[in-house]
Amino acid sequence: MNLMRYKKQFILVSVAAMVLSIVAWAVKGLNFGIEFTGGTSIRYPLAEKVTSAEVWAALDTPEIQALDLELSPPQPYSYFDAESGTQKHGVLIQTRFITQEEEEKILSALGAAFGQLEADSALQINQVEPIIGKEMLLNAFYAVLIAWVLMLIYIAIRFEFKSGVVSLVALSHDVLCIIGVFALLGKEVDLSFVAAALTIIGYSINNTIVIFDCIRENLRLKQRTETYAEVVNLSLLQSMRRCLNTALSTILAVLTLYLFGGPSLRDFMLALIIGLTVGTYSSAFLAAPLWAIWKTAEEKKGPGGRLAVAKGN
Amino acid sequence: MRRDLRRKIWFILILVVAVGVYTILPIFSPPLKQLFFRGNDPIRRGLDLKGGMEVILAPDYRVEVRVLTEVEKYAKKAVAGLGIGEPAVSLLGIANDNNRYEGLALKFASAAEAQQVLVAGVIKTNLTWRSGIEEKKLKLNVGVDQADPTVLRVAVQEDPATFPADALYQVKVIIENRINASGLAETVVRLDQAKGRIEVQLPGVRSQEEAERLIKSTGRLNFRLDDKIVLYGNDLEAAEAGFSQQTGAPVINLRFGKEGARRFEQITREHVNEILAIYLDEELLMAPYIAEPIPNGEAQITMGSGATIQQAKDYAILMKSGALPLSLRSVMTTQVAPTLGTETVKLSLIAGVFGIILVFIMMIAFYGRMGVVADLALVIYTILVLGAIAIFRGVLTLPGIAGLILGIGMAVDANVIIFERIKDEVRLGRGIHSALEAGFDRAYVTILDSNITTLIAAFVLYAFGSGAVKGFAVTLSISILASMFTALYVSKTFLSIWVEKAPDRFLTKYVVRG
Prior knowledge:
The structure holds two protein chains of two kinds.
Chain A: H1 7-28, E1 31-32, H2 34-37, E2 39-46, H3 52-59, H4 62-65, E3 75-81, E4 86-95, H5 100-114, E5 124-128, H6 130-158, H7 161-185, E6 188-189, H8 191-220, H9 228-260, H10 266-301
Parallel strand pairs in A: 1-6
Antiparallel strand pairs in A: 2-4, 2-5, 3-4
Chain B: H1 3-23, H2 25-28, H3 30-37, E1 44-45, H4 47-50, E2 52-59, E3 63-64, H5 65-80, E4 88-92, E5 100-101, E6 103-107, H6 111-120, E7 126-131, E8 134-144, E9 151-158, H7 167-182, E10 188-192, E11 197-203, H8 208-216, E12 221-225, E13 228-232, E14 236-243, E15 250-256, H9 258-270, E16 276-280, E17 283-286, E18 298-302, H10 309-321, E19 328-336, H11 338-391, E20 395-396, H12 398-427, H13 432-464, H14 468-501, H15 503-513
Parallel strand pairs in B: 1-20
Antiparallel strand pairs in B: 2-11, 2-19, 3-5, 4-6, 6-9, 7-8, 8-9, 10-11, 12-13, 12-16, 14-15, 15-18, 16-17
Helix pairs in contact in B: 1-11, 1-14, 11-12, 11-14, 12-13, 12-14, 13-14, 14-15
């Protein structure tokens, strides 16, 4: 089987995915959580299911309007509480960074509309100052950048610089794809999203290295007549089983957590599932073909020249 | 059995049993829990799993309204000198719990006027403000408002250089003492010196008021006559609750150090029958009147009628520990309802176990008997990871659980790589003994390279992440190391024993299945 015959198509799929992600990102933007934008989020438990409009109406009092809270549309949510075995409801409200008094006003408005809270309720209030949010976003960005540089150095030492560069291309592809899907679905980008992205970076690089390791080994046995594409093809076929088995078992474990885990785990696990799938693909069908193309191009350009029998004059 | 194999199997057995006894038995046996972990859970759960509050505090260099009114007068005077109409002044930023603002906004008649004031530089960058014994060195920063060019923003801050260099460390110690006195278990107070932040975690705290009582009343203790600060609480040596010898009413006994005692005597002598208000920052705690001059720095405040001894104790704690060298504001509060936490743990645990079982079945389906070896290695991996978390007193958070699952994936991966390598070697026509050795040798390099790159990512996460992300990085690192150990050492030992005992059967099983 010659996988490398389709190398252009493989790369094209990745490029298309990247372009789509960038378009989704540019058009829809990212729904940053308050960890990054700063603000206050209130998870207010409710006895019954409500609609976003009902909560809007409850908060539409002159007193609250006067506060200019920069309210975003309330998001009702429901989850199954394993402890009591019942379905629970609530609503998520996000505002700018507010003071204690402003918070109390919101809570009393909600209390008036939907009944007062019990003492031991699942009320949850998170607050982040805008300055800290910016700092956290920058930190996350630096973390990715530094991790990449260090990994590039390691790969350059253990393999070669070209492998390092194409591995990073594959990683950018993975991260872009998760960002694209989150932008498309309007899912919240928060700190656990960053953790997921970094996990994917770890996993995908792991995958890519295994393939490059196989290539490195086949390269030692490479005949002069063999092309780089053939070496990559052989390596891909050899490591295919391993890649599929590992990806399948990891995705299976994550999938069960996605389906049956708690509601707060959902988005995190979704990011992992997308990332694992995309990461497995990009290691085999983006990084490896790119490497082969680069190596072949270099060989053609290299200090070759034409050597022929000297003709007498 | 070969001697070295026997030694290895004993080592693995002892390790697993020791770790198992240390981490898993205490879950079922309270006496062991008491012995190993002083009654705490072997594996601490993070706030997201347990419920509680996390607050990040930063020094509050902003200033109070009473300071800003002086700055306002100064600014108006400076502007008047230029012959420009008086600007309309409003406060910048929103008041937080300390009732402090970021500065002033000066609105002029036109953008040109604002520009003129800015260019003339009449508003200086350094100011000193005095009132009573208070003295604040202020730093002013003037700039044009980006949204409205007729407005000049004057940011006013206390000069951080006027505070002692180890002020934040002192604050950390004080908050720690206060929280420890409250009797809460497994609290964390961490100081990030580089960023100038203090991170406080209060597991099990259910309400904001409860947390506030412990940490938010972080202001500086000050004594005021007629709303002017006359004495700071820095020199307060002790504040204890007790009962009055005469009336039996709850009282608070205060004792000042040498300097404070001298000052206190002076104040009380000159202001008998006046009210000496006690403030934490801008918040009034008590307002006792001075009954008589107090000479030796030992004062007693008799609580008002109806006060309980508990209230006296609370006030005493606040006064003593309230003597922070600088004011703080909370820049981030995260609150997790305990019900939400436990619900998530239960579901995730069930799902996690389910997922692991699926992986076990898959490994056996793919690799037959060798899959059983891999599964055994996975069980040992799980025990070791839990043990390592318990030993290092790591905290298991939601992302941490994901790190564990990913680690399982890595552990499976390592085994898969090894098995595929051995198969390759067998196909190349090697004998089973040398195929095993060669397979492991070749897999060794692959596993090392791929895991080290992942470890690099984990270390960077640890260095840059905060809170939950840090916990995730720790579990990820632990699980990567454990997966390498189980694959390269445990699996190898098991497979070697098998090959040792029945080389032919191993080979046939293998070739047939593979």
